[in-house]
Design brief:
The complex is a heterodimer of chains A (333) and B (536). With 333 residues, chain A is mainly α. Chain A has helices at residues 2-16, 19-44, 52-70, 73-97, 102-121, 131-136, 149-160, 164-182, 184-194, 196-201, 206-232, 244-254, 259-280, 283-286, 293-296, 299-313. Chain A contains 16 helices and no strands. In chain A, helix 8 (164-182) crosses helix 9 and helix 12 runs parallel beside helix 16 (299-313). Chain A is globular and about 65 Å long. Chain B is built from 19 helices and 20 strands. In chain B, strand 14 (336-341) and strand 15 form a beta hairpin. The chains are: A mainly alpha (333), B alpha/beta (536). Chains A and B meet through helix 9 and helix 10 of A and helix 3, helix 4 and helix 5 of B. Bound molecules: adenosine-5'-triphosphate and magnesium ion (MG).
Chain lengths: 333, 536
């Protein structure tokens, strides 16, 4: 019995620490990392946008459609931004200008976005990513040609053999951190989400800031979504984000609105999501109930709740941007 | 008054015919208001007379429905607070606008603009420096801010989160925030309502310094003695209209009150005799309490209150007044000691049970917001909130609450368009009257009134003193915690002085002096005073 337990732990660890598992975890976390950075700057402006799933799908479908029709990577990225940015713009009009409840607007966006995206995506359902674009992503910029020794080849396989999208996403998360905490514009963004009235009275153009970061945040979600059909799968499937947009909402809380931590957070969530599949392939593990694929898919949420509890029990912990969920009207009190 | 003559081509600003409606409430009705450079100008008016509204219009927060604003002779239209800042207008709001989780420095720097090149103003270099370092080196920014503040004699630690600063430090942050934006017109909305007398004095010297440098200062206060001591001129608002502007040295306080209220009112407290029976109501025995950081707040505190009497509590800010109230109301649990009402223990009971035993409390905290009212509900529902706990059965009785609400509105002259009007929309002073009215109508045995007149206009303050006296005549035992020693002496029968949570002694109000109380407040016990010892 005890021997069984240890041997299953052992096989679990050997899965989790295998270079190939780590590599797919990293690749799988790109979508969520970009989405998290996007949702994070939206929330830093005081707006919870639950429409991440919708915006990801909008970006994915518009971008992929453009890629197939034009075979131009930059146009594809541009249209992914336009598609998702359009969804975010609608959300911004509703919540900033019309002061509609943020949750309602976000939910509506995720349903509306998915519908529109599936309608568009179906038109290119039976195609694959154009060769010239696919080739860009077969390039592994950091990969070592002849790694010497087992350690280097492990590192090489796990972390260095990824396409440019992955590294740009990581760079973006780092750049966003610098922006948030080391620039004046970042300070203005944080103050807006922390106390909009104070920001307004300090001479900050709060409406402009809110629109700007809600839309930018949406665009990042869209670029994240585009990774799925364009690179990861190389083809379109309806609803292909499969709940990753919702995981992003949890991830933002999990990483406590901190973009650098999102790199690790997205990896944890990404690998937890694929762990279910890997475990299925292992006979010994798949017979244990908690390693059921469906049960495992709830681990990320469980983790988020644990983090929430851990922080709410600490009295002085920062509970996140204070203005989230509160509409702002200057003459209101 | 040399400084006023300087640059006297134009007033610093002049507002003409300003009208502002909120729904059906006419908050400003064609108001004219003008302030000269170098002048400290008071804005006086009852609660809800539209002072904050007028100044919010000037600082770009509210858009007026009608009227014109000129700044240094130039016609302006403010579309946002940023526009007003660009014209040199800075406002310290009645409720501070700070992000509590961010440091004082971050609060100050966010939104600051680069000064135009070669504008030749003397602080431009400093401002540019602060902005340059703001993003890179917090330590250097903080150093510059400290340097700038010390010029005005203002001190605070800019590296601390704003939420952890004391009220007066928060105010300092707001002042520096405004000054660093280059404000030459400074508006302070009731800056002294929550300051201790010492802090207020310091603020006044800062304001005088700035006026001497040519700043135009608008000072809103309900305290006439402050206006008399500090200001050059005063403009009186009544019911949203500007009534008159006078030179302070040519007018006395009584005339001002008359202009403010619109008729002569009697500003004396007539003190009924206390109940001679001296039956004990509240009996506090050896109360000791240290807060979560184990700072002692109450130190073996014992005293009794009698039915039909007002016991005053005097003391410096933070001397244990708040903890005393919270212990009696059951909000905090003292580590030692006992509290009895009518010889029945109430220590350890829940706040609601304590209310049911006949203890009512009206505590106005320093921020004066979030004080036991539901902001989005009307007066009626807020009364119901307390009331329903005392009625039987699952159903609520709206009718009782309605009559009570009407009664309270009449008695306390609360200005509201209707019973269901959300209390958050009322002016600060009127919100306070709602709380007090609600507590009085619970018909308590023991009524605790802590800082009940904070931010109230003079007329309302006296209304409240009279209400407390009525309670006393109804044989209620009243515990009055206050800041103004004159009022304590006029209103109370006995006065207990607290110092660092200790009872320094209880004096008879009819025979004590302000000096005696003052010495006790700073740590000399009554016995020591009688023996002729004084450490001060
Ligand atoms: N944002 C708002 N929305 C609705 N009504 C408002 C608003 N601001 C002010 N009012 C109303 O306008 C009137 C004037 O309020 P204001 O706050 O200007 O009074 P005040 O003179 O500053 O009083 P106080 O001394 O109590 O602070 C009040 O009746 C108030 O209810
Ligand atoms: Mg006011």
């Amino acid at each position: 019995m005890i021997g069984d337990f240890f041997s299953s732990i052992g096989s679990l660890l050997s899965i989790v620490f295998s270079a190939s598992f780590i590599a797919s975890g990293v690749a799988f976390s790109v979508v969520m990392l970009l989405g998290t950075v996007g949702e994070l700057i939206t929330e830093r402006a005081g707006h919870l946008n639950l429409g991440v799933e919708g915006m990801m799908l909008l970006g994915a479908s518009m971008g992929y459609y453009t890629a197939v029709r034009s075979s131009n990577l930059f146009l594809a990225l541009l249209f992914a931004c336009i598609g998702a940015g359009f969804g975010a713009l609608l959300y911004a009009i509703l919540t900033v200008t019309l002061r509609v409840n943020q949750n309602v607007a976000g939910l509506a966006l995720s349903i509306f976005g998915a519908g529109l995206a599936n309608a568009l995506g179906s038109k290119v359902a039976n195609t694959t990513t154009p060769d010239n674009i696919a080739k860009v992503f077969t390039w592994k910029p950091l990969s070592l040609t002849s790694p010497s020794g087992p350690f280097l080849s492990y590192i090489n396989k796990a972390f260095l053999s990824h396409d440019i999208y992955v590294y740009l996403a990581v760079l973006l998360a780092i750049a966003t951190t610098v922006f948030l905490f080391k620039t004046r514009a970042g300070l203005e963004l944080r103050l807006t989400g922390e106390n909009t009235a104070a920001a307004d009275a300090s001479g900050i153009k709060v409406t402009r800031i809110k629109y700007l970061y809600i839309i930018l945040g949406g665009m990042l979600c869209g670029i994240g979504g585009l990774y799925l059909p364009l690179v990861q799968q190389g083809s379109w499937t309806n609803n292909m984000t499969a709940g990753q947009g919702w995981l992003v909402v949890a991830l933002v809380i999990f990483v406590r609105w901190h973009p650098v931590k999102a790199i690790a957070g997205a990896y944890v969530f990404g690998s937890l999501t694929i762990l279910g599949f890997s475990v299925q392939l292992n006979e010994k593990l798949s017979s244990i109930p908690i390693f059921n694929q469906y049960i495992m898919s709830m681990f990320p949420y469980l983790l988020t709740i644990i983090v929430l509890i851990a922080f709410s029990s600490r009295k002085k912990a920062w509970p996140g941007p204070k203005e989230i969920g509160r509409p702002y009207f200057r003459e209101e009190r | 008054m040399e400084s006023i003559v300087r640059n006297d081509l134009h007033p610093a600003f002049s507002m003409r015919g300003i009208t502002k409606m909120f729904g059906t409430v006419l908050a400003n009705d064609s108001v004219d208001f003008e302030v000269l450079p170098g002048e400290i100008h008071a804005l006086l008016g009852e609660n809800g007379s539209g002072k904050s509204t007028l100044m919010n219009v000037l600082s770009g927060i509210y858009r007026p429905d009608d009227g014109q604003i000129e700044v240094y002779g130039e016609l302006k239209e403010f579309r946002s607070p940023g526009d007003a800042i660009d014209s040199g207008i800075g406002m310290i709001h009645q409720h501070y606008k700070l992000a509590e989780a961010m440091t004082a420095t971050e609060n100050i720097v966010a939104g600051m603009k680069k000064p135009p090149k070669n504008s030749g103003k003397k602080d431009d270099v400093l401002r540019t420096d602060i902005l340059r370092y703001a993003s890179r080196s917090p330590a250097k920014t903080q150093q510059k801010i400290i340097e700038f503040s010390s010029r005005f004699g203002i001190e605070f630690d800019p590296s601390i989160p704003a939420g952890q600063l004391s009220v007066s430090q928060k105010q300092s942050v707001e002042i520096i925030k405004v000054l660093l934006r280059g404000a030459s017109i400074l508006i302070l909305d009731e800056p002294t309502a929550v300051l201790t007398p010492q802090e207020a004095k310091k603020l006044f010297s800062v304001l005088r310094k700035m006026a001497a440098q040519g700043c135009a200062i608008v000072f809103i206060s309900h305290k006439l003695n402050e206006i008399m001591a500090l200001c050059d001129r005063v403009t009186v608002l009544r019911k949203g209209q500007s009534i008159e502007t006078c030179t302070v040295s040519e007018i006395d306080a009584y005339d001002l009150v008359e202009k403010m209220v619109g008729r002569k009112i009697n500003l004396s407290i007539n003190k009924p005799d206390p109940d001679p029976e001296r039956r004990v109501c509240l009996d506090v025995k050896g109360l000791t309490y240290s807060d979560s950081k184990s700072v002692p707040k109450l130190d073996n505190l014992s005293f009794t209150t009698y039915y039909g009497e007002i016991l005053g509590v005097a003391g410096l800010a933070g001397g244990g007044q708040k903890e005393l109230c919270e212990s009696i109301a059951g909000i905090i649990r003292p580590q030692q000691g006992d509290i009895l009402v009518d010889n029945e223990r109430i220590a350890g009971l829940s706040p609601r049970d304590i209310t049911q035993k006949g203890v009512a409390m009206c505590f106005i905290p320093e921020d004066r917001l979030g004080m036991g009212l539901v902001a989005s509900m009307g007066i009626e529902e807020n009364i119901l909130l307390k009331e329903y706990a005392l009625t039987k059965g699952p159903l609520i009785r709206m009718k009782d609450a309605t009559t009570k609400a009407e009664q309270i509105i009449n008695e306390l002259e609360i200005k509201t368009p209707g019973l269901k009007h959300p209390v958050r929309m009322l002016s600060g002073g009127n919100i306070q009257k709602v709380i007090l009215g609600r507590e009085i109508h619970l018909n308590p045995k023991l009524m605790i009134a802590a800082y009940a007149v904070r931010g109230l206009d003079i007329h309302s303050s006296y209304t409240i003193y009279n209400l407390l006296n009525e309670q006393k005549q109804k044989n209620v035992s009243v515990l009055y915690i206050g800041e103004d020693l004159d009022v304590l002496i006029d209103l109370c029968d006995r006065i207990m002085v607290l110092c660092q949570g200790k009872n320094m002694g209880i004096v008879d109000a009819s025979s004590t002096t302000k000096e005696e109380i003052g010495q006790m407040m700073s740590g000399t016990t009554l016995e020591e005073l009688k023996r002729g010892v004084s450490y001060v």
